[in-house]
Amino acid sequence: MTDEQASSTSTEPVLRVNKVYIKDLSFESPAAPQIFRNEAEEQPQVSLQLNTETQQLDEQLYEVTLVVTVTGSNSSRTVFLAEVKQAGLFHIEGFSDSDRDQVLGAYCPGTLFPFAREAIAEVVQKGGLPQLVLQPINFDALYAQQQRERQAAGASASDAAQ
Questions:
Q1: How far, rounded to the nearest angstrom, does the alpha carbon of residue 138 sit from its chain's CA centroid?
Q2: Domain-wise residue ranges, the chain
């Protein structure tokens, strides 16, 4: 390998998933055991909230945490509340700032979501409730929407300052 080839391969972006782990997991069923007494009761309406947290641990190592909160409620009460903080350690190097932000804001949460989805489904079922299947999420589209909203908010703030 020539020096020119070696230098061109060393500038290639690198992205590795070093570890995936649950940082926190909680489940509450405040209406139990009453909800189990009337099996014909209406199915709960499920709401989903997503959030991400990113922490740079060193120059190339980032911890990304995907927080998934699922609430099931019917007309009269909360049936269950499940939350998982699914985290991962990602080695990221050789990306431009904007590409790195996109990796941290879309790719990493997208990688973590199947693990979080499995954890939520398992804990809800172990709580004595019917199987809960969360649908896949397009994190690239969510990231793009968030970027557009930030740009619009920035434009609004600069207009207000004038």
A1: 11
A2: 13-151
